[in-house]
Amino acid sequence: MADPELVIQADDLTKTYLMGKVEVPALCGVSLAVASGEVLSIMGPSGSGKSTLMNLLGCLDRPTSGSYRLEGRLVSDLKDDDLAVIRGRRIGFIFQSFNLLSRQSALSNVELPMRYAGANGSRRQRAIEALEAVGLGDRMSHRPNELSGGQQQRVAIARALVNKPAIILADEPTGNLDSKSGEEVLRILLRLNQERQTTLIFVTHDPEIARRTQRVIHIRDGRIEDNG
After folding, report:
1. I want to staple 136 with a disulfide (CB 3.0 to 4.6 A). Which of 46, 63, 131, 196 is the partner?
2. For residues 6 and 36, is the Cβ–Cβ distance under 8 A?
């Protein structure tokens, strides 16, 4: 039964990939519960399964077995088209490499998730407000190559927030930034979590990020070793 206080409720998730004729297990029975508004880090060495787990939590993939509920809704069995709708409307992504469209302005980049989600009417105003929230009200017309790395990541944060998602998944969000820019990006994310109560999940190797989150989940060999 779904718990209304949990934004994420994953039970006994497994994921197995077929490499030729060989089955390769990536996740081996992972269970995880995350409360609404929580801030946590998922850590583990390369090949531990943390990226696979992020893909399942972000509705980018489906588990081989087990169940996953997002905001109480069972999503682990949905078809690809339905997963795409959930992903576009309820999940925000922030990547190490920013993933901005180089020929589009900051404002247009932030508007994109609303276009994909079919939002009408106030798209531009919502994008403006999202950029202002990350301190880029004076950089809206700039393209990515006219912005610093820290500014590009702040555009990516605004893009992740603009649809008011239930969760934000941040995959090594400071990995390509110098220490000053990384600290600024981290501070913005934590402030927005406090202001908006958006659940924030970091997938990271950075112990400084982990130290600043409420809970740290360690994963190794496809299993959770420590659930905080």
Report:
1. 131
2. yes
